[in-house]
């Protein structure tokens, strides 16, 4: 039995009225979504006490762009809309709990991203994970997410795919910067090319540091945008070599800081292992081979909650979660 389980997809059509837009989501929402929000809330009691203030600040910083959606989703899920807004910026205020291992590979059919999302709380997140297919007019994008999520960590459009890894820097968190996960969603919604996505990721002032791997539909379109809140450097692979990102800067002239020591200590070893394994895959790697690479003991972490495969050239997006994190037979089915 393979150590992963593929997750189903949910469609969200933004051209529909909000009263019917989330009906498909409403049918599948169970206790897993509320358990995830409860876990996030329990870890951040101070934030919870200041819920109204923090949520309003985030709302204003994003020009109330996500307010109506947060309210509509909160009614479907049965929580305060402010909790969804805070979950969308969870990266900024608990950055030390996140990791991720990502590789951008050149293949015979164009570039692809294979990545582990190492994100807390891993069990609740795995159980609530779905592929979301977002429709707006003629534009479609995918994300690996959970019901009620406003931000994006891993996503793909018809023209490019992106995946964010955590990194800390001496700049810390900038309250006036754009929340990272909400900005990645904006890039997926509005950018219409690989080049435009990279440009926006370099230009925007962000609330926190991050590493964003981006690939287009040609093998030379593979980069990692290394970010602090105010600075950006673009890192590219050597020729057809795999481009691997974990949790430390490789080109940026800044110290990686602010992550949990265990994540920093494993960053280099995970990167070296993923580079070695990726070179063994060949020019047309099968999904099973990619998944065994991601679940290798030198790469997968205790908090690995998702395995994602993205191929923009063929518009193929697949999401898997570790089998051991699914406790009940009905979730595995």
From TrEMBL:
Top-level taxon of origin: Bacteria
Keywords recorded for this protein, A-Z: Transferase
All copies of domain Peptidase C45 hydrolase, residue ranges: 107-290
One Pfam family this sequence matches: AAT
Gene3D superfamilies associated with the record: Penicillin V Acylase, Chain A
A GO molecular function held by the record: hydrolase activity, acting on carbon-nitrogen (but not peptide) bonds
Listed name of the protein: Acyl-coenzyme A:6-aminopenicillanic acid acyl-transferase
Record-linked InterPro entries: C45_proenzyme-like, Peptidase_C45_hydrolase
Protein's UniProt keywords contain Transferase: yes
